[in-house]
Structure formats: structure tokens, C-alpha cells
Amino acid sequence: MLNIFTIPAFMVCALSLARAEGLEVTLDIVFIPFWFLDGLVLLGSCIQDISAVRVAIGEADALIGGDLVVSAGAKTLGLTRTGQTGAVVNSHQIITGDFTRDTEFQIPFDRLEMQLQARLKDRVALFDASELARVVMGDSIFSNMMVLGAAWQNGLLPLSLDALEGAITLNGAAVEKNLRAFAIGRWAALHPEEAAKRIESTVVAKPLSLQEKIDFRAEHLKNHTGRGLAKRYRRMVEGIEDETLRLAVAKGYHKLLAYKDEYEVARLLLDTEKKAREEFDGDFRMTYHLAAPVVAGKEENGRPGKREFGPRMRLGFHLLKRLKMLRGTPLDPFGRSEERRMERALIRQYEADMKEVLAEVTPETRDIAVAIAELPLKIRGFGPVKAENEAKAAKEREALLASFRAGGGMSKAAE
After folding, report:
1. Which residues touch 47 (CB under 8 Å, ≥6 apart)?
2. Is the pLDDT of residue 53 over 50?
3. 45 to each of 42, 73, 159, 381, 408, how far by Cα in Å?
4. Residue 138's CB: how many other CB atoms inside 10 A?
5. Residue 383 · residue 339 · CB < 8 Å
6. Using CA atoms, how far apart are residues 125 and 113, in angstroms rounded to an integer?
7. Fewest CB atoms less than 10 Å from the CB: which of 7, 34, 202, 317?
8. What is the pLDDT of residues 218-254, one digit of tens each?
9. How many helices, marked H, and strands, marked E, lie in the chain?
10. CB neighbours (10 Å) of residue 323?
11. What is the CA radius of gyration of the chain?
12. Domain locations along the chain
């Protein structure tokens, strides 16, 4: 499969093929791949045509954006000029790294689209290439190639179709799929309304029943730790008669039991690597950015720092996956950290709270009982972020329990 980081190089390859056809090209392009911060491509028929190594402010001829957030940012827009720059941008809404530091963080996607349209007027085309790639081809990884196809169809790439398709073929990775993705991008540019209809759900999914939701979470806990944890979960949940309260406990208790520790991270990363290997051809290599215990250190803001680890880390992941039975036991080498102690304490606290609440709940206190049961859903994030959210939830828990014990409703809890 064509790697998202290789598209600028792929375009240079296409330019070489275009030169072989006798085509002269001079063009400044800003390319923003999905999950990549900044890619700049300067195409010229010869080295003399390129007078700088980067696109100058206001000099971009084309903006090909795989990421709406970066494409609509001030740095990128500063490279464009109204009336000169044309753009094709993937409008897919993604979660950025800011969410890991602030779980209430939201990106103003509508405003980002307006910024692009205000700057580039009618020379910008937006479509959800990621979702279109997922629906039509089964994998959003082809979104960049679709955006490239749409850009060519809109006249933003003065390279011949033969040169671009030839570059895809020379790349040698998932050739047929990438050629198809490029063609679908062209079609989406010509028929935007039809493309939009393709990603609209034509089948209304049947909502999961309460029991199906419980079964799904129990199966996840079996993969997380084992059958014992899944049985422990079911014992708590399946004796609750009130369906609203039962669902609240099913969500809240699962959130606490399925905490993402070192063993779970290893399992998830190995699963991700397996899926990636099934999709990528050729020499596959994956690196991992981890805030590993002991060796990670701290960043300037006091948060755990991340380091890059190579493929050899897979050996450690396989070992950790096999050692998950140590989770929460005296032999757990990670169990003594402050975060792990907090997570285990929250489980014990929740079980004690539910024992009291489920035994004493009345029609008058039912809404408060539901709020208490769902409280763990607010304890999101990892490390310092999780600790901050836990402190806020602890205060809310005290108020809710006080109101519950007084027999009051949600209005009293709010007070």
C-alpha cells in the first residue's frame, strides 16, 4: 500500500515521467497528508525552476489537504493566495492530540471549513475522503490517494494521467487498489453529490439490545484479563431489574474494570500491528511512541514524556500479553504505581457504592443512582489527565451519595 509519507516522493516520480513525455511543469504545491503535519512539494521542469526549498508565503498554487485541521490552520492558509491557490481538502473530522490533555476539548470543524472557503472562495473543494475510502474500499488509508485524484480532476496537478498512474505502478505497493482510489477521487470531484450519498448510511442499524451491550462488554473483559473478570462483571450487572440503572452500571463498571495498563496497551498494539500487516504490502515496519515506565521521564509541563521504540519492542509486547494474569496481583511489576493503585481503589469503591445504592434505591432516588453508576465515564484520559478527572469525579460522588442517602432527587444533588 502506498504509504502516506511517500506521496510527495510519488509526485516527484510522476513529474519525472511527465518530463519523459516532454511536459514542462512549474508549480508550488502544499500537500497536507492525513496524520502528517506539513508536506511541501515544489515541482519544476528543471532545477532552475525551483528557487527555494519551501513554498513562500502567498505563493502556493495548490493545497492538497488530507487533514482539515492543519489545512485550515494559519500557517497553511498563509501560504495560499485568494484567486491563485486552488484546494482539495479531506473534510473528515478527526481527534487531535489535544484531546489526550483535555477530554472536553472540541474542534470547531464548521469554522475551519468557513476559514478555507473565506480564503479560497470557489476554488476549494471539500469532501470526506476518509469515510468515502472506508465505505467504498474498506479502509480509510486510501483517503490521501482519493484526495490526490480529486485534485488532478480539478486541474490542480498539471501532470498527465499516464504519468500519475505510471508513478503508482512503479511504486509497486497495492497498485490496483491505489489506482482505484485515484479514480474514485476523480469521480468524487466530478460528482460530489453522488459521493456524499455513498457515505450516507442507507441501512438503519438495528440498535443493540441491553443484553447485547452487556455481552459485548463482557467479551471485551474476557480478552482484557480473562473469564474470571467477565464473570465478576456479569454478577454485578445481571441482577439489576431497572433497565436504565442496569445499563448505567454496565457502562460504568466496565469502564473501571477495563483500565488500560501496560498489559492492555501491549495487547492492543499487537492487534493493531496484525491488522496493519494484513493491509500493507512490502517491507513493513512499525515504530511505537510510548510513555514507558521508568525510562520515559517528564516533559517540561510535568507530563510523562514519550520515546520512540523500534520493531524489537514487539518481543516485549508479546511477553506482556502473556503476563496479563499478573494484573492486580502482588507480583504485578506495574501495580505499585500511583495510577494503578488509584484504578484498583476505584473498582473497590464502585463495588461498595453499588452494593449500597442497589439495595436502597427508590423511585425518588433512582435518577441519582443512575448518575452515581455512570460517574466512572467521566474519569477519562491517562496519567495526570486521568488523575485530574478522578479528583473532579470524587467531589461529584460525595455530593451524589449525600443526596441519595438523604432521599433527595437530582435537584438536591445539584445543590
Report:
1. none
2. no
3. 10, 30, 11, 50, 77
4. 11
5. yes
6. 10
7. 202
8. 999 999 999 999 999 999 998 899 999 999 999 999 9
9. 19, 7
10. 16
11. 26
12. 4-199, 210-258+337-414, 262-326
Cell numbers for 249, please give them.
452500571
Q: Name the percent of the chain lying above pLDDT 70.
A: 76
Instruction: Supply the DSSP symbol for 326.
Output: G
Contact between 198 and 129 under an 8 Å Cβ cutoff? The reply is: no
| Domain 4-199, CATH among 3.40.920.10, 3.40.980.10, 1.10.8.60, 1.10.260.40 | 3.40.920.10
Containing 44, the helix (H) or strand (E) segment is: strand 39-44
The pair phi, psi for residue 38, each rounded to 5°, is -160, 115
Q: Residue 314 corresponds to which amino acid? A: R
Please enumerate in sequence order all residues whose Cβ is within 8 A of that of 290, keeping only pairs 6 or more positions apart, or say none: 265, 296, 306, 307, 309, 313
CA distance 300 to 303: 7
Which of helix, strand or coil describes residue 260?
A: coil
Question: 223-229 long-range contacts, Cβ below 8 Å, gap at least 24?
Answer: 223/267, 224/257, 224/258, 224/264, 224/267, 224/324, 225/257, 225/324, 225/325, 225/327, 226/324, 226/325, 229/257
Flag whether pLDDT at 412 surpasses 70: no
135-142, Cβ contacts within 8 angstroms, sequence gap of 24 or more: 135/198, 135/199, 136/184, 136/198, 137/177, 137/180, 137/181, 137/184, 139/279, 140/34, 140/92, 141/1, 141/4, 141/279, 142/1, 142/177, 142/178, 142/181
Region of 87 on the Ramachandran plot (φ > 0 left; ψ -120 to 50 alpha; else beta)? beta
Question: Is the torsion defined by CA of 80, 38, 11, 133 positive or negative?
Answer: negative
The Cα 390–Cα 87 span in angstroms is: 44
Q: Hey, what's the torsion of the CAs at 370, 402, 383, 256, to 10 degrees? A: -40
Size of the chain, expressed as the number of residues it contains: 415
| Set of cell numbers at residue 166 | 505510471
What's the grid cell of residue 141?
488509508
- Say yes or no to pLDDT of 99 above 80: no
| 221-249-260 Cα angle (round to 5) | 35
